[in-house]
Amino acid sequence: MLPYGRQSISAADIAAVTAVLQGDWLTTGPAVAAFEAAVSELAGGHRAVSCTSGTAALHIAYAALGVGPGDEVVTTPMTFVATASCAALLGARVVFADVDPDTALLDPAAVAAVTTERTKVIAAVDYAGQAADYAALQPLADAVGARTLADAAHSIGGSAGGRPVGDLADVTTMSFFPTKNLTTGEGGAVVCKDPAVGQRAHEFHFIGLVRDPARFEIVDEGPWHQEVHEYGVNYRLTDLGAALGLSQLSRLGSFKRRRAEITARYNQALGGVDGLRTPVQRAGVDPAWHLYPVRVLGGRRREIFEGMRAAGIGVQVNYIPVYWHPVFARQGYSRGLCPNAEAFYAEELSLPLYPDLTDNDVDRVIETLTRLVG
């Protein structure tokens, strides 16, 4: 089965991890600090906090932004459930806004229609690898004293308006799952423009531990002392994962170029095929393509999905609208809430896209798909 996504592991990646195993630190060591510094440099120089997954990154980000009961988080339904569920876990009410019908990115006009004084965060998703319209979303957040969050699980290495992903929203979360644009095995990161938010993110992911003597409330202990002011969790990335991530970062540019080449090959071959619609790129964006979301028209998506799988091609669907999940449906979210997102979901099919995909592999995908829709 040709997978729709997979990691690309080199001899240098293996050597980097082996070096950690032969050293003194398996976690909370120098590789983690070096990886966070490298992510920060890539993301505009803001503080980066590494963590165990993209989901952990979202949980950390919402906690660092003070999300809690009584708050509202406005987000897109066209995403993996964690973008919404991590806010809900903290007691916030999730408010879904519809997406642009062409790009499946959060629609600023739809956000403006649901933003209130209770809005704490506007959380967009860089669907398929291109940045959402943060230039339009930021003023909407600023007007009500909210913050913007970029769920950049798909888009690390990309940019918009000449600014890198990580510098486009108040807080940015990243995922380093094996199918993503680079991997740490499992892992993620939170990038924070506000240093105070970055410090809260660090402490939340480090069990809430405060180690700055100037902030201690218990002042008569010894040099071993540390204390907890707010609850936190252990979401720390290991030095093993960080070493792999550092090695992968050195190839992020080549990963991005190859993904763009494959995307262009798909676009050229599929752009004129009846029954298909190729992805639309937003103006001013340099994507780091993570998905190739072709649209299958005429109500044939499931038929084509099953035909591609039967032919040994591991297509996927990204994503079922979040509020369709029973955990949200049981809270009263109903179908029809975001018609553009639902229409996009009904047609979306993710084709294989990863750096080690060969041109012959791509041609096989193209030939199979065009035969099935013909």
TrEMBL record:
A Pfam family (short name) is: DegT_DnrJ_EryC1
Show the InterPro entries listed in the entry. DegT/StrS_aminotransferase (IPR000653), PyrdxlP-dep_Trfase (IPR015424), PyrdxlP-dep_Trfase_major (IPR015421), PyrdxlP-dep_Trfase_small (IPR015422)
Record-linked Gene3D superfamilies: Aspartate Aminotransferase, domain 1, Type I PLP-dependent aspartate aminotransferase-like (Major domain)
Co-factor(s): pyridoxal 5'-phosphate
> CDD domains this protein is in?
AHBA_syn (cd00616)
Q: Which UniProt keywords apply?
A: Pyridoxal phosphate
SUPFAM superfamilies recorded: PLP-dependent transferases
Record has Transferase as a keyword: no
Query: Keyword Metal-binding: yes or no?
Result: no
Spell out the family assignment given in the record's similarity comment.
Answer: Belongs to the DegT/DnrJ/EryC1 family.
Identify the PANTHER family for this entry.
Answer: DTDP-4-AMINO-4,6-DIDEOXYGALACTOSE TRANSAMINASE, TRANSAMINASE
Q: Can you say what this protein is called?
A: UDP-4-amino-4, 6-dideoxy-N-acetyl-beta-L-altrosami ne transaminase
Organism of this sequence: Kribbella yunnanensis
User: What broad taxonomic lineage does this protein's source fall under?
Assistant: Bacteria, Bacillati, Actinomycetota, Actinomycetes, Propionibacteriales
